[in-house]
């Protein structure tokens, strides 16, 4: 829609952004508009000027377009049929970024209409995973709100009302066809479609007398309610990512909207009714729902809700690392990376699938990694905080093509976030691993150790591999390193070094390093031989940070003790 003065159309997302900055200016324009009968020409002209400079789009009645004034409200609506897949996490994240960017609301709705696929514990898992990732909600299951209940199984009465509305208006009909009858039809008819021709040949409220329909329903005969799709109608879907999509209704089935067997609607009806009643402004979901979008548009029309229909954005799939097909759990099992945010134990089989949290990923790293799978800010920046993602995210810049799941990039992100994270925070995450290994250490020592080794790790769990020797003395020595580093005169030289260190007053690295190097030079010893052998004595192998930093953390008594024990064992 354009301004009365002929100014070019401004994209809706830009209107929303403008609104966040000029809310009060708009309010002033509305006030002037209401005073127009009294102020006449002056109010009219001032309103036009404000509209022009702020990008307000007006109708000929000088009404600010309703879309602009509509509050941004999005929803994440998972089904509790198992653990939340990483693709679902990305969908939740994009909804969250969009809502926060525009000062809108984020709703958590549980779509549990498929009772046959319900998995105990799945709902709690979903909520815990989203909380761990920092994806927060304003209302919904577990949060409350004025549009509840937010669990679809608790909204049966609401759905019945709207099923009846469609039946009464002739936009839906009762069908008694059984699964066996439908299977027979599919076997008979190539490319079977439940369309206008099919409905005229089946047992339903369109082909049976009203009295017989009433009798069958009264007798408890199971039935479904199908949406009546009018043939040869062009249905337009304006997708924020994919643009304008037009589909002819002749290729659409008369989808089932309600099943009497469990007294619950299908996804198609429930999500339309809920989105409307909960005043959802934008539906951001996976592209697997794009083929259903025309049906959903027709449902909005059937209810008379087309004017308040949300805008759609269908996200491209996450693909296998090779790019050929949708990412699955099997890909993670095959290549050794998680596809779930948290560890999941299958309640039926007992099988355990590892999660990102248990694999040592930081939630900030997972969020950053997922945000860039299918979207980028248009610059060279990779590492972004949640606040930066909120500021930069643009739903219209999401890719139409699927994104390959680069799990090595995920490891890189985690490494970056570990380097940036405060040592005290990392120490808190490392503490459970210390306890598992029977170690009790001060916060100060743990943080110091982490500062020395964190550049070598990608995951929290790798800290023990890199730093365990700081807390527990080696019980054995790597054979290859011994053969390479422990020479005939090593025991004598390290014995002298132990005496030197035992008498040294300060054990800070900056104090011991010059003393030891001066001793080596004075005695004509080989620096590399002494340092390598000392590392073997302190660590048990040839790894670890700067040798004098290791000594400082261990302290005089532990350092000297480890050197003397190595001499005793290795001779």
From TrEMBL:
UniProt binding sites for ATP: 329
All residue ranges annotated as the Aminoacyl-tRNA synthetase class I anticodon-binding domain in the record: 425-567
Subcellular location: Cytoplasm
Keywords per UniProt: Aminoacyl-tRNA synthetase, ATP-binding, Cytoplasm, Ligase, Nucleotide-binding, Protein biosynthesis
Signal peptide range: none
EC numbers: 6.1.1.17
Chain ranges of the Glutamyl/glutaminyl-tRNA synthetase class Ib catalytic domain: 72-409
Oligomeric form and interacting partners: Monomer.
Summary of the function given for this chain in its UniProt record: Catalyzes the attachment of glutamate to tRNA(Glu) in a two-step reaction: glutamate is first activated by ATP to form Glu-AMP and then transferred to the acceptor end of tRNA(Glu).
Protein name: Glutamate--tRNA ligase
Taxonomy of the source species: Bacteria, Pseudomonadati, Bacteroidota, Bacteroidia, Bacteroidales
């Amino acid at each position: 829609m354009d301004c009365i003065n002929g100014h070019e159309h401004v994209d809706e997302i830009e209107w929303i952004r403008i609104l966040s900055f000029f809310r009060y200016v708009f309010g002033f324009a509305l006030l002037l508009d209401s005073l127009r009968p009294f102020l006449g020409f002056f109010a009219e002209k001032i309103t036009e000027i404000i509209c022009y400079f702020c990008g307000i789009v007006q109708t000929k009645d000088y009404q600010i377009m309703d879309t602009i004034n509509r509050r941004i409200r999005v929803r994440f609506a998972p089904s509790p049929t198992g653990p939340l897949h990483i693709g679902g996490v990305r969908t939740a994240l994009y909804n969250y970024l969009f809502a926060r960017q525009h000062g809108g609301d984020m709703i958590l709705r549980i779509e549990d209409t498929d009772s046959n696929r319900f998995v105990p514990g799945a709902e709690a898992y979903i909520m815990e995973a989203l909380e761990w990732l920092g994806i927060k909600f304003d209302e919904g299951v577990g949060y409350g709100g004025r549009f509840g209940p937010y669990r679809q199984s608790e909204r049966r009465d609401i759905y019945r009302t709207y099923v009846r509305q469609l039946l009464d208006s002739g936009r839906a009909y009762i069908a008694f066809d059984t699964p066996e009858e439908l299977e027979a039809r599919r076997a008979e008819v190539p490319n079977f479609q439940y369309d206008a021709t099919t409905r005229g040949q089946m047992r339903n409220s369109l082909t049976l007398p009203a009295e017989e329909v009433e009798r069958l329903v009264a007798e408890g005969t199971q039935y479904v309610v199908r949406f009546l799709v009018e043939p040869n109608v062009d249905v337009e879907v304006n997708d924020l990512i994919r643009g304008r999509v037009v589909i002819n209704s002749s290729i659409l089935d008369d989808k089932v909207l309600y099943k009497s067997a469990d007294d619950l609607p299908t996804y198609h009806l429930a999500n339309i009714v809920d989105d409307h009643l909960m005043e959802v402004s934008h539906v951001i979901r996976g592209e697997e729902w794009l083929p259903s979008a025309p049906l959903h548009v027709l449902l909005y029309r059937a209810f008379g809700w087309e004017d308040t229909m949300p805008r759609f954005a269908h996200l491209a799939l996450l693909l296998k690392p090779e790019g050929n097909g949708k990412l699955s759990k099997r890909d993670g099992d095959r290549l050794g990376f998680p596809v779930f945010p948290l560890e999941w134990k299958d309640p039926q089989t007992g099988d355990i699938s590892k999660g990102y949290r248990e694999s040592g990923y930081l939630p900030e790293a997972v969020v950053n990694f997922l945000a860039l799978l299918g979207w980028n800010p248009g610059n060279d920046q990779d590492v972004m905080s949640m606040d930066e993602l909120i500021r930069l995210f643009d739903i219209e810049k999401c890719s139409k093509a699927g994104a390959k799941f680069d799990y090595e990039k995920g490891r890189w992100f985690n490494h970056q976030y570990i380097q940036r994270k405060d040592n005290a925070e990392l120490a808190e995450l490392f503490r459970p691993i210390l306890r598992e290994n029977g170690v009790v250490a001060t916060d100060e020592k743990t943080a110091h150790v982490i500062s020395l080794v964190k550049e070598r790790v990608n995951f929290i769990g790798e800290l023990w591999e890199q730093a365990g020797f700081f807390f527990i003395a080696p019980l054995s020595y790597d054979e290859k390193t011994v053969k390479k580093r422990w020479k005939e005169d090593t025991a004598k030289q390290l014995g002298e070094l132990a005496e030197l260190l035992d008498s040294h007053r300060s054990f800070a690295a900056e104090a011991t390093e010059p003393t030891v190097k001066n001793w080596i030079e004075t005695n004509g010893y080989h620096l590399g031989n002494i340092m390598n052998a000392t590392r073997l004595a302190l660590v048990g192998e040839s790894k670890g940070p700067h040798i004098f930093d290791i000594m400082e953390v261990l302290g005089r008594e532990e350092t000297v003790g480890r050197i003397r024990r190595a001499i005793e064992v290795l001779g």
